[in-house]
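Budget justification aside, the reviewers requested a transparent look at the raw inputs and outputs of the sequence design task funded under Objective 1. We therefore reproduce one unedited record. The lines immediately below are the structure tokens for a 126-residue chain.
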């Protein structure tokens, strides 16, 4: 089974690919040109191919209230899908490039290794 990692820009996709552990051989990193393009493509992959999709986006903020809004908006866009196939969101805070080592790659690798997936699901109650 292939895991799709979808982001907005080619630069972010290249950065993610460069930093991912080479042990992960069933991964495709794809840029879709926009935030909505990335989310839409992830939903399509999840539904039509029944394969896991991770959306990795720049948060463009470190403010916790703003991060919660981004998570909520993502949830609203994917919530018609059951949790077992819905794409998950990983935010680069404040950006993917600024959090590549400490946050983004660690979270992607946790997801790929089968960590508790509830950590990646939106919970409206903090």
């Amino acid at each position: 089974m292939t895991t799709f990692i979808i982001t907005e820009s080619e630069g972010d996709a290249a950065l993610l690919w460069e930093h991912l552990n080479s042990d992960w051989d069933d991964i495709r990193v794809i840029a879709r040109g926009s935030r909505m393009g990335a989310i839409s493509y992830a939903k399509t992959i999840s539904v039509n191919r029944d394969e896991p999709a991770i959306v990795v986006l720049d948060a463009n903020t470190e403010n916790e209230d703003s991060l919660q809004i981004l998570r909520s908006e993502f949830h609203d866009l994917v919530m018609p899908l059951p949790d077992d196939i819905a794409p998950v969101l990983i935010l680069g805070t404040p950006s993917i490039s600024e959090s590549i080592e400490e946050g983004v790659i660690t979270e992607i690798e946790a997801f790929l290794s089968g960590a508790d997936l509830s950590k990646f699901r939106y919970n409206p109650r903090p």
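DSSP finds four helices and four strands in the chain. The helical segments are 10-19, 35-49, 64-78, 100-112. Computational costs for records of this kind are itemized in the attached budget.
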